C-alpha cells in the first residue's frame, strides 16, 4: 500500500472511532455506527495484513485491529 492509501485508511478509521464515541448516547444510532466501524476496521486490518510488501501495512493492521476491539463492546452494550 502506498503511504497515501495508508494515511487515508487511518484517517477513516479515526473518524469512525470519533463518530462512535460521539453517538454513544443515541443507542440505536451508536450501535449501527459501532457495527460499521467494527466491520470497516476488520476489512482494513485484513487488507493491510495481506499486503506483505509494505512495512507500514503491518502497523495499519495493528491499528485497525485496535479500533475493531474498541468498537466491539459498543455492539453489545445496548
Envelope shape: elongated
Cα-atom Rg, whole angstroms?
13 Å
Instruction: Characterize the main sheet.
Output: none
The tally of structural domains comes to: 1
Strand residue content: under 5%
Q: Counting H and I runs of at least 4 residues, what is the number of helices?
A: 3
Which structural class fits the helix and strand makeup?
mainly alpha
Estimate the helix proportion, in percent. over 70%
Q: Calculate the terminal CA-CA distance, rounded to whole Å.
A: 37 Å
Could you give the count of β-strands? 0
Average pLDDT rating: 75
H/E element string? HHH
What are the segments in which pLDDT stays under 50 over at least 5 consecutive residues?
none
Pfam family, one: Csp
Quick overview:
The chain is an all-alpha fold. It has helices at 3-22, 27-50, 55-75. It holds the Pfam family Csp.
What does this molecule look like?
This protein is mainly α and 78 residues long. Helices cover 83% and strands 0% of the residues. The chain has three helices and no strands. Helix 1 runs antiparallel to helix 2.
Amino acid at each position: 500500500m502506498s503511504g497515501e492509501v495508508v494515511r487515508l485508511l487511518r484517517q477513516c478509521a479515526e473518524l469512525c472511532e470519533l463518530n462512535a464515541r460521539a453517538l454513544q448516547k443515541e443507542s440505536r444510532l451508536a450501535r449501527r455506527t459501532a457495527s460499521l466501524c467494527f466491520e470497516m476496521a476488520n476489512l482494513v486490518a485484513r487488507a493491510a495484513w495481506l499486503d506483505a510488501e509494505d512495512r507500514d501495512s503491518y502497523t495499519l493492521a495493528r491499528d485497525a485491529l485496535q479500533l475493531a476491539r474498541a468498537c466491539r463492546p459498543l455492539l453489545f452494550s445496548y
